Amino acid sequence: MEAEGILFPESPQANEEMVKKAEQFLRVYHMDDLVEITKTYPRKRRLVIDYTNLARYDYQMADEFLENPDFYRELFEYAAQRIEIPGAPKDMVIRIGLKNIPTVRRLLVRDLSSEYIGKVVLVEGIVREVTDVMPRIKVAVWACKACGSQVPVLQESPVLKKPLSCPYCGKRDFELLEEKSKYTDFQKIRIQEPLEFLKGGEQSRHIAIYLEDDLVNRTSPGERILVVGVLRIKKTQGRSTVQDKYIEALFVDPVQKEFEELEPTPEELRKIMELASDPDIYKKLVASIAPAIKGHEKVKEAIALQLFGGVQKKLPDGTRIRGNIHILLLGDPGTGKSQILEYAARLAPKSFYVAGKTVTGAGLTASAERDEFGEGGWVIKAGVLVLASGGLAAVDEFDKIDAKEREALHEAMEQQTVSVAKAGIVTRFKAETSILAAANPKFGRFSDDEPIVNQISVSPTILNRFDLMFVIREVKTAEEDREIASHILETHTAGQLRAQYEKSPQTEVTKEEVERAEEIVRPAIDPELLRKYVAYARTHVFPVLTPEAREALLNFYVELRERGRQKETVPINARQMEALIRLAEASARVRLSNVITREDAERAKELLLYSMQEVLRDPKTGEIDVDILYTGMPKSKVQKLKMVLNTLRSLTETRDKVAFDELLKEVSIYGIDEDELEEILQELSRRGDIIEPKKGFYSPV
What we know:
globular; Arc Repressor Mutant, subunit A; five-stranded mixed β-barrel; mini-chromosome maintenance (MCM) complex, chain A, domain 1; CATH 2.40.50.140; 701 residues; five-stranded parallel beta sheet; alpha/beta
């Protein structure tokens, strides 16, 4: 082998017949590629051999390449060195890659057993971590301390290898000559299995990929890639017989198309088309989401539209408008929010489910950290929103996530990107992810006496980025109690019958009885078909507003704004208008329609209005007020705060402080009673607008 001008005796160049055969192959199939490399060298130095061409030229050689890649890489590298190319640098060293290998070598990470060690494999995965680019010694030059001779040693493993002895004096004491050694660019990434390849409760496995030369800096966290490489064992200094494994990459190819593994078969496509043309398709979708949870039809309809999603737009000036829909479920404990989230995550073609305090800011977005994987250097780690880009992130116990960590969501939710700036590393990742989150009230259960958003531990700046918010309350009537209890009993009975039928040899339960009992929890659309239905719609359907739909949305917005002016509130703003459009687009995608009709617009209006009445209603006036999202309080309360503060300032023009009773007498003309005044004074004090110099007396700041 020749590496940077150093000759190694184990090189396959000794077999002249094979070298000529390899040289002839390169001349016939890859001469243009070799010429192109000379123009871009050393930025590009890898010649990627197409396996299909090699198999066409010599099937035995192609097959042996997969089994003994080290020998054949050296063979083709040496053959490439022998080909004279006009304008080629004298010291040019060609590296060999391989692509389009047989599908029988396409494996999941979990299938990379010991039988594949030293052989070529193909693995698909999502990039989780990426290290800095580091120099790696390719050929270490050692100086013998006894006679001064220089001995080059090819480094084929992660552990630095010394000569066994000096070939000139036989001594074994060496010193590394770092400045004379040969280096190559080196980078490590870690990939995990795509989630759609997993079944049931399987955990996603991961493996390290080693990249060299022109393969470095080709991938980012969150990207989905195909890796052709050689499975290696990571040699360690210890005596353990158990070794870790990694893949030395020969070729890395980004997977451009989302959900390509979910392309429906012709029969499935026929069923999808039938569903899309069914007049009851929206009802069937509702009946297909968490059927074990009774009711909540509006919530389930919204989640169905979230799965299909809106259309991402790119404007001429480069601005991007998100198409993903964000939904927040606010509910009393024990109302089934977590089950709804988990079920939605299973239906989404690409999804992650996370919960509560187990999530950090880096776990949601991305981070730069020093760790062992990066050999002590910096590693970029992708979080849930980056890994789920193009799909759904279900975030349970959203209110339990630390406030500082939630702040990292601002950019991801609106700009659909995640930025990292740390230790000189400044980068940005794609995070085109829909968020379905759930949160609990601060004090156990929701109260009707104050705005809902004040009863959860989530800042208004995060809340206003959700397109829809729903309140899932504990039922309050005996009739509803009976319906829910009956549904739970029937659900458990179905599970009991199934368990007895499958596991008890003495059972008298029949298959027909089990199927009849399961009817109550059987989704209207098979989950696997629904996943492919969603994937097909998101990749093939891009609807456009009709004039009728545009007029319906415009009139709704203008009329609500005018009503707000009359009531001195702001019931809707531009964010809600964009949410309307996204919901209407998703509604059209359900029907696989390329046009958004008035019916789609009406469905979007109904959902948004229902959501706003649930969350943005002023408990005092009953009016919808979007200011609640931005200030945490309705405009009516903001006005009363101003009234009390102005009155207090007026009364203290001639004195230092005012008694509570006197202030109450002055503001009672505005309809403010004693309890409300106490609440307002607490709020003004919290904001730093007033102080209480003496118990029961107040002064403006």
